[in-house]
Amino acid sequence: GAVVSQHPSRVICKSGTSVKIECRSLDFQATTMFWYRQFPKQSLMLMATSNEGSKATYEQGVEKDKFLINHASLTLSTLTVTSAHPEDSSFYICSARDLAGGETQYFGPGTRLLVL
Amino acid sequence: GQSLEQPSEVTAVEGAIVQINCTYQTSGFYGLSWYQQHDGGAPTFLSYNALDGLEETGRFSSFLSRSDSYGYLLLQELQMKDSASYFCAVRLNTGFQKLVFGTGTRLLVSP
């Protein structure tokens, strides 16, 4: 089946630094990718929709200047958490649907961010 | 806003059958999906319903009633490995057809 990868899988950083997370669709092309955040024992909350070649669409309450999204190609989207703070510590998961169609939305393995 | 409600926790024994319900209120509806997530892992796709009725995939079945804004996931012949969190998710028919997740149900299967 289709595979979505994320890198890094785990990152620990100091407060105030920026962290970049990559999301790649390995065997299909995706015009649109989605970024989710999940706090422990909670549901997945959609942060933004990443669109290849254009600006991302952010959900209400998500700061676009803090969570920078770049969708540079049909197989790569990046999420940069700028000036990270301890409250940004969370599980970040990207997701993509195959441009060729289909109902399944594939999820990456997630990136666990811990901000000290 | 979007609202998808699920029971927070369900317990069952091996070999049993369990049903996880999902009621939703969303601004648009394209279909209802179900995902399984083990602790520390990513969600994995289980099933999708766009039309009313029952979809069966092995031990898992999913049901949808669009008129009632309701669906459920049925797990049969439960195994210990089925212990996980289960999420319903509505695919919206607006914008980029984004997927909005339910509150999640933690299933604990005991011997």
Mean pLDDT of chain B equals 94
Give, in order, the helices and strands of chain B. EEEEEEEEEEE
Report the largest inter-chain contact.
A-B, 23 and 23 residues
Task: Kindly state the percentage of residues in helix of chain B.
Answer: under 10%
Helix and strand pattern of chain A: EEEEEEEEEEE
**Shape call of chain A:** globular
How many whole angstroms does the radius of gyration of chain B measure? 13 Å
Q: Profile the largest sheet of chain A.
A: 7 strands, mixed
| Overall number of strands of chain B | 11
Strand content of chain B: over 45%
Please give a structural write-up.
The complex is a heterodimer of chains A (116) and B (111). By secondary structure, chain A is mainly β. Chain A is 0% helix and 53% strand. Chain A has strands at 4-7, 10-13, 19-25, 32-38, 44-51, 57-58, 67-73, 76-81, 90-97, 105-107, 111-115. In chain A, strands 2, 4, 5, 6, 9, 10 and 11 form a seven-stranded mixed beta sheet that branches. The model of chain A has no long low-confidence stretch (mean pLDDT 91). By secondary structure, chain B is an all-beta fold. Chain B has no helices and eleven strands. The mean pLDDT of chain B is 94. Chains A and B meet through β4, β5, β9 and β10 of A and β4, β5 and β10 of B.
Question: Tags for this entry?
Answer:
heterodimer; A: 116 residues; mainly beta; four-stranded antiparallel β-sheet; 0% helix; globular; B: 111 residues; six-stranded mixed β-sheet; five-stranded antiparallel β-sheet
Topology:
The complex is a heterodimer of chains A (116) and B (111).
Chain A: E1 4-7, E2 10-13, E3 19-25, E4 32-38, E5 44-51, E6 57-58, E7 67-73, E8 76-81, E9 90-97, E10 105-107, E11 111-115
Chain B: E1 3-5, E2 9-13, E3 18-25, E4 31-37, E5 44-49, E6 53-57, E7 60-65, E8 70-75, E9 84-91, E10 99-101, E11 105-110
Parallel strand pairs in B: 2-11
Antiparallel strand pairs in B: 1-3, 3-8, 4-5, 4-9, 6-7, 7-8, 9-10, 9-11
